[in-house]
Each structure stands twice: as C-alpha cells, then as structure tokens.
Amino acid sequence: MTDAPTYTASTYTAPADTAQTDTAPTAVDSPFLTVLVRLLRAEDSHGAWERRSDADLLADYIVTREERRLIPLIGDPDPDTLWRVEKFYGAVGLRIEQLTGQVASPMMKMHHEGFGRVVLLAGRLVVLSRHLRDVHRYGHDSLARLEEAGETAAQEAAALIRRFPEVADA
Amino acid sequence: MTDAPTYTASTYTAPADTAQTDTAPTAVDSPFLTVLVRLLRAEDSHGAWERRSDADLLADYIVTREERRLIPLIGDPDPDTLWRVEKFYGAVGLRIEQLTGQVASPMMKMHHEGFGRVVLLAGRLVVLSRHLRDVHRYGHDSLARLEEAGETAAQEAAALIRRFPEVADA
Fold first, then answer.
1. pTM of the entire structure?
2. Which InterPro entries does the UniProt entry name for this protein (chains A, B) (predicted)?
3. Nearest CA in chain A to B105
4. CA pair distance A115, A99, nearest whole angstrom
5. CA B160 from chain center: how many Å?
6. Which H or E run contains A118?
7. Is any Cβ of chain B less than 8 angstroms from the Cβ of A124?
8. Angle separating helix axes A31-42 and A79-100, nearest 10 degrees
9. How big is the A-B interface in CB pairs under 8 Å?
10. What's the sign of the alpha-carbon dihedral A134, A136, A138, A142?
11. Considering chain B, what percentage of its residues have pLDDT values greater than 70?
C-alpha cells in the first residue's frame, strides 16, 4: 500500500494530491483498507486492474471537500460511485466477519436519484443501518478517513453482535 | 368483503372463479386482508379504484396453480406483479404493528429478472427474511390462502419481537 501508484495507459485519472500527502496508512495498521482492496480485486475478473497498485485503486474513494462541492446533485449519480458505495459496505461486512466470525450481508436499496438505505444483516440482527443521500458526492477526505469510516462501522457492528449473540445466530 | 365484485368499465379482467367459489373470508375473520385492502386503497391517489369493491381489488392477488403455469418465466416480471409483492409485505409490516405496536419497515431488493430478497426490519431486529424467485408467477390460490400467508408471516414476526423486545426497541 506504500508503493507509489503505477500509471497504466488507461482512462484512469491521477489520484488527488491528498492521497499522497495524507499520512499513508500501511497494510498493517489499516485492516479495513486491506479487506476493501481484496474485495475490489475480487471483482476484477478480466484482470484490467492487475497493473494498478492498491493505493491507486483506493484513490477512487478519495474525494476532497472541494472536489465534492463541484459534483452537481442534479440527475442520477454515476454508476461507478454507486458501485463504490456498495463495495464499501460489502467490505464492512467482510471486516465484521473477521472480527466476529459472523457473516454480515449487505442489502442496499437506492432510488435512482441518489438516496436510499443500506443495511448489514447478521442472522436476525441488523448490525448496521444507514440512510444515504446525495450519493453523487460519495467519497472520503483521505485514505486515513476511509480506513477510519470503515473500521468504526465494523467495530460498532461487532459490538452489537457481541451484545446480542443469540439474535445474530438465529 | 362479502359483496359481489362490481365491474367497472376499466381494463380490469374478471377475477378468477376461485375467488368466488372459495369460502369467502369476511372482514371480521380476516385481519390481514383488511390491512392489505387499506394499504392498496391508500395508494389510489387518483380515485381510480373507488368503484372497485374490496373483493375485486384482492382478486388481482389470486392466481391459481393452472394460471401460474401459463405465465412464462422468460423476461422480466410484470411491474404490477412486483408492486403487488411489495404491497403484500408492506401489509405484513402494518399487521405486525397492529399486533405488537412496533413498526416493521420492508426492504425489498429485486434483480430485474424476478429474483431477490425481502426483509422486514423492526428496530435492530430482522423480523422476516425471504429470498424470492420466479416472482413473475407471484399469486395465491385463493383469498383464504392469501389471508393465511399474510397472517402467518405477521404472527411469526410478532413472536420474534416478543422474544427479543430489547433488539426490536434498539
């Protein structure tokens, strides 16, 4: 994760400066990012991303406050953005499994205009429930913030599973 | 509910014979059908169904085994059918609220080809979880069966809420 991104001759645009200037988390201290990268690569069935580094893949998740403000809320969100939101919560689910041994499966229902709800379900327990809006502007300020957001969500969900083990097993 | 259906000059097709030959449930002994009709009428914002009787509205839910077999599974299910599935689970949620005082909100995520998942969530508790498939052929054999299906689902969910009140309140 500490490698400099390698640029391939794709339509990919260079990651924002923030991705580099940020105190770059390493794989060791960023369990959530490790899971997220694994999930993203698992979807790469055609090998299109083989030459993109982990940092490069994650850079798509970094949208600074200024960049966010420039994204219009008119019309439907970019399908790639929706896909990233889905993968984010999918990775939270996988991280929950690492923490508790319990699978947490995501269910996301979005209106095409960019609002909706996402839940993570473990057995009979709703371990995470969020209403989303303005998904057009989805993104995190930095890699550190992305790690923090995913890891916090997973830890809170794991705490709920530990509190109601009988429900999560049901 | 015991009225004979009144036929209006709409594109509506006559209800299948089963709807009549069935031991017609009355409003008194069919709490689920009462809720379902109320929900269907609540969606009728233009008054298009004002002259359709309750039995007539519910007749859309009756699809006999023979009729079902004739519906092809190729292509996407009829949007009206999907809408009926949604209203069915919405009515189960309302019936759960009658039984327990706890709101159970539905979340349905369907692939356009007619399979998917529906859950009903009360607080942090998954009170109902079903995987759906071949939704093209959704329907119930008779009004009595429709009542039974909805009421059983609601009673099972209510039992779960009573078993885990702390989770449903969370």
1. 0.80
2. NifX-assoc_nitrogen_fix (IPR004952)
3. A117
4. 29
5. 20
6. strand A116-122
7. yes
8. 120
9. 45
10. negative
11. 84
Decide if B119 and A124 are in contact by the 8 Å CB cutoff: no
Smallest Cβ–Cβ distance between A167 and the set B121, B125, B129 belongs to: B125
For residue A163, the chain B residue with the least C-alpha distance is B167
- Cβ <8 Å between A167 and B129: no
Q: What is the pLDDT of residue B96?
A: 98
CATH number of B26-169: 1.10.3100.20
Extract the tokens encoding A141. 């300020």
Write out pLDDT tens, residues B119-140.
999 999 999 999 999 999 999 9
Interface of A with B in 131-160 (CB under 8 A): 160
Asked if this assembly's ipTM is beyond 0.95, the reply is no
H-helix segments, chain A: 17-21, 31-42, 54-59, 65-70, 79-100, 143-163, 165-169
Q: Determine contact, residues A126/A161, Cβ cutoff 8 Å.
A: no
Q: B108 CB near a chain A CB, below 8 Å?
A: yes
Per the structure block, which two tokens stand in for A91? 């990775």
Contacts 24+ apart (CB under 8 A), B6-14: B6/B51, B6/B52, B6/B53, B6/B56, B7/B56, B8/B51, B8/B52, B10/B48, B10/B52, B12/B52, B12/B56
For helices A143-163 and A79-100, the axis angle rounded to 10 degrees is 50
How many Å apart are CA B54 and CA B65, to the nearest integer?
A: 23
Which tokens go with A62?
Answer: 């970094």
In angstroms, rounded to a whole number, what is the distance separating the alpha carbons of residues A102 and A165?
A: 10
Mutation for B interface: A126, A127, A128, most B CBs within 10 A: A126
